[in-house]
Specification:
By secondary structure, the protein is mostly helical. It has two helices and no strands. It is rod-shaped, with a radius of gyration of 26 Å.
């Protein structure tokens, strides 16, 4: 029974180490730089077919 507990403690230690390394990697790579941009971008309606996609120049009229 003691061998199983040692294995589980080592396995949980490896998982904690991987989680900590993953958090530091995500902070270093800039995953948390802009938290509000994607939340606001989802509300923008870029694919509305009724919106004009280009403006007419004076020579196009």
């Amino acid at each position: 029974m003691s061998g199983v507990l040692v294995f589980l403690f080592l396995l949980s230690g490896v998982f904690v180490l991987l989680i900590v390394l993953g958090v530091f990697w995500s902070i270093k790579s800039g995953q948390f730089d802009d938290l509000e941009g994607p939340a606001a971008r989802i509300l923008m309606d870029d694919d509305d077919p009724l919106l004009p996609t280009r403006r007419l120049n004076s020579k196009d009229e």
